[in-house]
Amino acid sequence: MSYDVNSLEAHWMPFTANRDFKDNPRMVVKSEGMYMWDYKGGQIIDGSSALFCTPAGHARREIAEAVYNQMLNNDYTPHFQLGHPGSFELAERVCRLLPDDFNHVFFTNSGSESIDTAIKVILAYQRARGHAQRNRLVSRERAYHGVNMGGVSLAGMVKNRDQLMDAAYGESIFLDDRTIDSHIKRLRRKIRALDKEFDNIETLYGIGYKYRAS
């Protein structure tokens, strides 16, 4: 295969019909504030903040300068037996913004990595408590939890799971868009069928559930 600067073949894009895109590429060449511009000069409103990666807007000079200065001072420190003052300061500032029970921060690089890390923390925590059998996870139908294997296993996006179910791990219970009360009744029945020690279920913040074993 030959390569040149005008070829689009080398980049395989996620969640994209690649052949269709490369037949009619939508290439962004500039961004500022809430707008992006394509290579034809067309202006685009970035309603998703670059998939939630630029919530403060594009081309913020103060952010660019802060990143530039930090990279000149210390661009990266691996947190394996090493630390960097900035990460500890940021963790403390984040904790101040959160409710009192949230007093530790584990930094990740993406939402997908965050979900996989949370799954591992949950399973390791239960195993450390001597409850290794507590490994069932509850998720919403059509819920998106990233594209790493743990997130795909837990997510309710059927098309993401279809090709990977044999490789996906864990056991998930999926809830549709019924009312909270009907969710709880249905979830009790499902968990009791799986776990004879099931005792009770609690609603958490209207967005998730946990259950207690007796």
Task: Please give a handful of descriptors for the protein shown.
single chain; 214 residues; alpha+beta; Aspartate Aminotransferase, domain 1; two-stranded parallel ribbon; 8 helices; disordered C terminus
Fraction of helical residues: 25-40%
Query: What is the string of SSEs from the N terminus onward?
Result: HEEEHHHHEHHEHEE
Helix count, per DSSP?
A: 8
Question: Using DSSP, what is the number of strands?
Answer: 7
Describe this structure in words.
The chain is 38% helix and 16% strand. The protein is of the alpha+beta class. It has two domains: 75 residues, Alpha-Beta Complex (Aspartate Aminotransferase, domain 1), CATH 3.90.1150.10; 78 residues, no CATH class. It has a three-stranded antiparallel beta sheet, with no helix packed on it. Strands 4-5 form a two-stranded parallel sheet. Strand 2 and strand 3 form a beta hairpin. The C terminus is likely disordered.
Q: Secondary structure elements and their pairing?
A:
Elements: H1 18-23, E1 28-32, E2 35-38, E3 43-45, H2 49-52, H3 61-74, H4 85-97, H5 111-128, E4 136-140, H6 149-154, H7 158-162, E5 171-175, H8 180-194, E6 198-204, E7 208-213
Parallel strand pairs: 4-5
Antiparallel strand pairs: 1-2, 2-3, 6-7
